[in-house]
Write a structure and sequence with these properties.
mainly alpha, 382 residues
Length: 382
């Protein structure tokens, strides 16, 4: 009887209930909130569902992220190996290949001025970098945090790994993906505050037809120009443009479909769950995390505002031919930011179709954020 009682006691004490801390309970609640937002309100469920579930798992069973050195049999936890692919920059680069294969770059080719809008929206990154240094982060950490302002999760993870900021990678990635998911909530108030009703109602001329030759040459030319100037951007820009070349060449349909579908979704699962699993209570609940979340929001808001303001400048220069709302799409959240520009414009005039026009700055923003990451890597000699 004593043996049975001891066995039952051991079993009970092996349950997670005896190991949960107050911090774990907080993170479990946060995970459930993320799941609610994703499932009930459709806030980027492809991102939030795996992130939230990874968060849930690691706060119930921390050993799922244990390194081989921390285990008795020398085998790490399942999500530890997923997370290693983040640290090695493999998953972020593959994500961008999928983005390239899914995205039509024609709006940017047809209206190259959108490069300026994409560049303007990167103001938030460099503004956040200065603020992060001012509040105590070292140069590398400040640079890794500031990329959140581009609303580009893969690039945020990539730069954090390259700059050796793996301890901050979890909060940075969660903040970046959270703000990507919350684009429809964060951007509209800023866009409306900085534009007039008349500006929001501006109709833009139809984009010209882009030839197949232009679409094929574009990823090759961008790769040559950007990677020759900033070779460290090759994993990001190179994979983005390779994916787009798969799409536009017309001769590798199977590769294009795989990159934009099966591979993309597999990588999203691995990256999302591993990012979520980096948010154990011990690593996530601290003042640095709160600072990172606040800096990320400020950077994203500044980037959105800078894009809209520069859009207003171009509107003035072109005598009202450019709707300033498309400047907000200069952040890297493809295609959410472009959809928000369309939605805000349609609220003023349901016949106003800005989506394709906004896709130009949106694509430029993806390239711009990768370039910003390359600049930081060049500065720090990575």
């Amino acid at each position: 009887m004593e043996y049975v009682g001891e066995t039952l006691s051991n079993l009970i004490h092996q349950t997670a209930f005896f190991n949960l801390t107050f911090g774990n309970l907080i993170m479990i609640v946060v995970a459930c909130v993320f799941l609610y937002l994703a499932i009930r309100w459709d806030f980027e469920p492809l991102l939030l569902v795996p992130i939230a579930f990874g968060m849930l798992l690691v706060n119930i069973y921390p050993d799922i992220m244990a390194s081989p050195e921390e285990t008795s049999n020398g085998v790490g936890g399942l999500l530890y190996y997923f997370y290693s692919l983040d640290e090695w920059s493999i998953l972020p680069s593959l994500i961008l290949m999928g983005v390239g294969a899914m995205t039509d770059f024609s709006p940017l080719i047809a209206n190259p001025i959108c490069f300026l809008l994409g560049a303007a929206a990167q103001f938030g990154i460099f503004g956040a970098y200065l603020i992060a240094m001012a509040i105590g982060f070292n140069n590398e950490a400040a640079a890794a945090i500031s990329i959140i302002g581009g609303a580009d999760g893969p690039t945020s993870i990539f730069l954090a790994g390259k700059l050796g900021q793996t301890d901050l990678m979890g909060p940075i990635a969660v903040a970046a993906y959270s703000y990507m998911s919350l684009v429809p909530i964060i951007q509209p108030p800023i866009m409306k505050a900085l534009t007039t009703k008349e500006e929001r109602g501006i109709h833009m001329d139809n984009l010209r037809q882009v030839s197949k030759l232009e679409r094929i040459l574009f990823p090759v030319v961008v790769t040559l120009v950007v990677c020759l100037l900033l070779p460290t951007t090759a994993p990001l820009v190179g994979m983005l443009m390779l994916g787009n070349l798969f799409r536009e060449s017309g001769v590798v349909r199977q590769l294009s479909e795989t990159a934009s579908n099966a591979m993309m979704y597999i990588v999203v699962i691995l990256l999302g769950t591993s990012v979520g699993a980096s948010t154990s209570a011990e690593r996530f609940l601290n003042t640095d995390t709160l600072k990172i979340v606040g800096l990320g929001l400020a950077a994203f808001a500044f980037g959105t505002a800078a894009g809209v303001i520069f859009g207003k400048v171009l509107c003035f220069i072109t005598h009202g031919k450019i709707n300033p709302l498309i400047g907000a799409a200069g952040v890297s959240a493809v295609p959410m930011a472009a959809r928000v520009a369309q939605k805000v414009g349609a609220e003023e005039d349901p016949t106003n179709f800005l989506l394709m026009h906004a896709m130009g700055p949106n694509v430029a923003g993806v390239i711009g954020t990768a370039v910003a990451a390359g600049v930081f890597m060049a500065i720090f000699g990575v």
